[in-house]
Amino acid sequence: MMDGPGVIVLGFDGGGTKCEAVVVDATGAVLSRGRGGPTVDWYEGAERVRASVSQAVDEAICGRPASFAAAVGCSPGTGAALRSLRELVSAPLFREAREYDLIRATHLEDHGLVVLAGTGSFVHAQSRSGREVYLGGGGPLIGDEGSAYHIGLAGIRAAYRSDYSPTRATSLRPRILAALGLSHVAGIIDFLYGERPGAGDRRTGIAALARVVDEEAGAGDSVAVSIMSDAARQLGDLAVEAVYGAAMERHTFPLMPAGGVAAHSALFREALVAHVRNSVPGAHLLAPLLPPVVGAAFLALRDAGVEWGPHLVANALRSEAFGLESSFD
């Protein structure tokens, strides 16, 4: 046990687009923060993953002795990142947690419905009694409904088909072409099927287009609005399935959207929440305030003997003025 005012912990969260690390003290104040590249070894080489982890941890630790309680997000495909972390961080308490644990921890919750829409997507429902259901997380080929990848790919399809008929016309066409650095719609074929640096680069490039689709939806483009609404509905359907699977449908519980799409797109988030609440009215929204990496640090604080309380969230927000993440990842 490491309880006391001198406790300092490390939180780490890795994903398909980026990884982050924070150092947090016993009050919840964020002392420093680091960021690196992607850490999912399904799409990246081991060396790139190791470099990403090292960059984020080095920036966060800032020369402090690397002796912490640590909690890290342990998502599918991050085995190489975990191995690198154990090499870099000497921590007497080291917890491997799933991303939904981190998201719940940002709200100081141990149960509820987590709906993540970032580069990829998943839902996780956990009842007060501990019954849990995880759905999604299958990657771009067999899942990721409602994710930035899903939305970006739908935007590409809409742009490509924009001149098929007047009903398909969309402002996404010039915006998508500009975002991809293309002068003609035929270039989309080469972007999707031509030689690329790596599978991860193509995936993140497509996911980055979600912001374009959301912006055009906000400007009133009907095709873009339909894409965002349909993505929210598909992920909402999965969320409702998880709620029923965990036998939570007759209870009240927190609904915690997370990830860049859910955090930044008001249209998406409102459609998602409305769709879930239409089937399970007991879901009450807890809007995203802190990134999951801070939730990792909160888990580490609790492991170190620090009692959870609302002061942790308040101090984290004051210390770094996190707000919401700036990208759809």
Secondary structure elements and pairings:
Layout: E1 8-14, E2 19-25, E3 30-36, H1 46-61, E4 67-73, H2 79-88, E5 90-97, H3 99-106, E6 112-117, E7 121-126, E8 132-136, H4 148-160, H5 172-180, H6 187-193, H7 199-207, H8 210-218, H9 222-245, E9 253-258, H10 260-264, H11 266-279, E10 283-285, H12 292-303, H13 310-320
Parallel strand pairs: 1-4, 4-5, 6-9, 9-10
Antiparallel strand pairs: 1-2, 2-3, 6-7, 7-8
Helix pairs in contact: 1-2, 3-12, 4-5, 4-7, 4-8, 4-9, 8-9, 9-11
**Largest sheet: spatial strand order:** 3-2-1-4-5
CATH class membership of the largest domain: Alpha Beta
Q: Give the structural class.
A: alpha/beta
Terminal CA distance reads 35 Å
**Mean model confidence by pLDDT:** 87
Estimated helix fraction: 40-55%
From the alpha carbons, calculate the radius of gyration and give it in angstroms.
20 Å
What is the number of E strands?
10
Largest sheet, strands/sense/barrel: 5 strands, mixed
Identify the CATH homologous superfamily of the largest domain. Answer: ATPase, nucleotide binding domain
Known CATH architecture of the largest domain: 2-Layer Sandwich
List keywords for this structure.
globular; Nucleotidyltransferase, domain 5; 5-stranded mixed sheet; 329 residues; alpha/beta; 2 domains
Would you kindly provide a written description of the structure presented here, covering whatever features stand out?
The protein is α/β, with parallel strands linked by helices. It folds into two domains: 8-107 and 289-320, ATPase, nucleotide binding domain (Nucleotidyltransferase, domain 5, 2-Layer Sandwich); 112-285, ATPase, nucleotide binding domain (Nucleotidyltransferase, domain 5). The chain has helices spanning 46-61, 79-88, 99-106, 148-160, 172-180, 187-193, 199-207, 210-218, 222-245, 260-264, 266-279, 292-303, 310-320; strands spanning 8-14, 19-25, 30-36, 67-73, 90-97, 112-117, 121-126, 132-136, 253-258, 283-285. A five-stranded mixed sheet has the order 3-2-1-4-5, with helices on both faces. The relative contact order is 0.18. The model has no long low-confidence stretch (mean pLDDT 87).
